[in-house]
Amino acid sequence: MIVLGIETSCDETGVALHCSERGLLAQALHSQIAMHQRYGGVVPELASRDHIRRVLPLARQVLDEAGLGLSDLNAVAYTAGPGLAGALLVGAGVGASLAWALGVPAIGVHHLEGHLLSPLLAVDPPAFPFVALLVSGGHTQLMDVQGVGRYELLGDTLDDAAGEAFDKSAKLLGLGYPGGPAIAKLAESGRPGRYELPRPMLRSGDLDFSFSGLKTAVLTLVRRELDEGAGSGNPETRDPRQVRADIAAEVQAAITDVLVAKSVKALQHAGRETLVVAGGVSANRRLRERLAAEQERRRFRVHFPELALCSDNGAMIAFAGALRLAALKERGELAGLKPPEGFRVRPRWPLDELDAA
Ligand code: ATP
Ligand code: MG
Ligand code: FE
Known about the structure:
Blueprint: E1 2-7, E2 12-19, E3 23-31, H1 33-37, H2 44-66, E4 75-81, H3 85-102, E5 106-110, H4 111-117, E6 130-135, E7 140-147, E8 150-156, H5 162-172, H6 179-187, H7 212-225, H8 240-270, E9 274-278, H9 285-298, E10 301-303, H10 314-330
Parallel strand pairs: 1-4, 4-5, 6-9, 9-10
Antiparallel strand pairs: 1-2, 2-3, 6-7, 7-8
The structure holds adenosine-5'-triphosphate (ATP), magnesium ion (MG) and fe (iii) ion (FE).
Magnesium ion (MG) is lined by residues 10-12, 311-312.
């Protein structure tokens, strides 16, 4: 079965082709980062308009790359939520129309299910059940995962997401958007521990997170150490570049320390031996290294998506759609699936409201 996947929930247009026998056949991505950069964040209306421009040429590109035509498609999967309403409508509209025109089924995929299942695209995929740490621009969640669509929420952020904490701290440090990669890069020349930032909720006794206090602490630190007048009268005037690098290193350490500690705790709580990490922040090298070190000490196995699949992409949507369609096929329900006569998006859509596949 060949599935075309379309992702347009935010600021990346992603399109990919997945084949149930041969795996990922082709993928293409257009990032709008450069377009939104000067506004310091994503401008929803600009995002929707750009998706309209990109999605069909990208679909053409993946078909050409795979040496396939539209008539080879067996289904279309598109991101139905959560995300920006206008941006979602583009992918959903194009995906459902294409499926209708081709007379094949369309399936609306949950964006976070796409992230969560993306490590299963690896050569050595994890097996169910496992605990998943979902760390992206809009979410920070721990889930107990028993199968496709069988997700139990173990912990959530009470305010900002981990990616958001990276992004907001980066802004305070005068770094560009998106902040995660910028902080990670600057942190390479910094020393964690040179400044002290809080590890929010580290000992809260539950599996929840909170990152908004960290942002305030970073603001205070930046004002004290970097803003005009800082260091005046100090005989040992410090190099502001080093100060910024040291703050970046501590921000990264603070966020990743909490993520690692709570993930370990979630594994113990759920009695699982496999941890799957997904979402944009799963690209973070310090997070990967810290979890790899923990798995040695505590005897669990950690899995990440390949780097190119951490942030938003079409491959994870094609794959999640393919897994759900495969489950329908197994139950003999695939043949009853009609081409869509409409479509619906859900800008807000809790992951644990999904039905099992
Ligand atoms: P959601 O999936 O919750 O709807 P999103 O799609 O915007 O949100 P993703 O694309 O999964 O989020 O991830 C983007 C986030 O990942 C941004 O906040 C970005 O700063 C962060 N990020 C990307 N690379 C890194 C990195 N190397 N280190 C830390 N954070 C990173
Ligand atoms: Mg993005
Ligand atoms: Fe995402």
